[in-house]
Design a protein that fits this description.
The chain is of the alpha+beta class. It has one domain. Helices cover 27% and strands 30% of the residues. The strands form 2 sheets. It has a two-stranded antiparallel ribbon with strand order 1-2. It has a two-stranded antiparallel sheet with strand order 3-4.
Length: 101
């Protein structure tokens, strides 16, 4: 979990390497006009964003699980390449490309 810049996120307990490898394969296979340039200089982090603009109280509650535990699982039915547009009014997400599995 992190609170860098007020963002609370959870890392993956299992399968993070597989998620990162899949992201790299997908990015490499996308045409340059979709990815808009070279791949990132650092390895992407496999994570689930829980909250933006999170304060210390929320971060502490998530770390101690005082709000309850978060156990999640899902089946993947598609892969989407999504660009985040972060701004003062909140985040906006743009799907650049999507493939059904």
């Amino acid at each position: 979990m992190s609170n860098k810049d007020g963002v609370a996120w959870l890392g993956l307990e299992a399968g993070a390497g597989d998620v990162i490898e899949t992201a790299e394969v997908v990015a490499a296979a996308c045409p340059a006009d979709i990815t808009m340039g070279a791949p990132p200089k650092r390895t992407p982090a496999a994570h689930l964003t829980i909250a933006r603009r999170a304060d210390r109280e929320l971060i502490a509650a998530l770390e101690t699980r005082s709000l309850g535990s978060l156990d999640a699982a899902w089946t993947i039915d598609r892969i989407a390449l999504v660009r985040s547009h972060l701004g003062p009014g909140g985040s906006r997400y743009e799907t650049l490309h999507e493939v059904t599995l």
